[in-house]
3-oxoacyl-[acyl-carrier-protein] reductase
Amino acid sequence: MLKGKNAIITGASRGIGREIALTLAENGANIVINYRNYNNEIEALVKDIEAKGVKIVTVKCDVSNFEEVENLISEAKEKLGSIDILVNNAGITKDGLLMRMKQEDFESVLDVNLKGVFNTTKLITPIMMKQRAGKIINISSVVGLVGNAGQCNYAASKAGVIGFSKSIARELAPRGVNINVVAPGYIDTDMTNGLSDKVKESILQTIPMKKMGSTKDVANLVLFLSSSLSDYITGQVINVDGGMVMI
Ligand code: NDP
């Protein structure tokens, strides 16, 4: 589905980003993996992707830092030529009730989850506009649609990603660039592993399918939105959540 396309995936060292990288590679895309902290699993991931017969580039970069993102984009362009797909996946949580939330915990979550998306999108759009083609997929969350007690910083950042994406979708549609948002519900990764059994059980009660999603469930939708199968879709938010949120 993506033979010969070049894709950047932010925060691809673990979890959902890692699965997206593998899935796009399986479908023929050359992959740029962005990571913030090096971990031992990155080497294995590089080998797995190489084994699929596509090119792989790894770039260390904190997406909240504009200069580092400039380096990410220029290295990707230099090594692969064009950039056809950008998946803004990198994200963090720093949960707490508003009463107790420190300013820096609000700011750092907004910096990574929302400003990070601005940084990469701003720097990639001139390339995609010139190509008159491109797919941008932003990973938000159902929490950005309905809110969640204890996550006002995270919910604000993810709601911000939705408003940002819809605005840019309108700006770039005439230039052949599609931007869509994937809103996962409750997915089995390091981000959710830390929750207590009690919290996990109460979340499961809110999911009609009564189970967590897998990273593959999210990656499959990203694959569709990266491919020509979704050419007439832009500015949309699609949930992957077992029916948790229906609006
Ligand atoms: P993980 O915590 O498992 O992985 C997060 C990834 O983002 C890691 O690779 C991490 O790198 C990277 N990252 C974090 N901060 C930065 C940064 N400043 N610059 C570059 N990379 C960074 O999270 P998930 O895989 O669960 O989540 C992926 C995305 O999906 C996030 O945007 C999250 O908000 C969203 N999401 C997840 C849900 C879930 O249930 N898991 C539900 C809804 C949305 P490092 O290893 O260096 O920390």
User: Anything to note?
Assistant: The mean pLDDT is 97. The first strand starts at residue 6 and ends at 9.
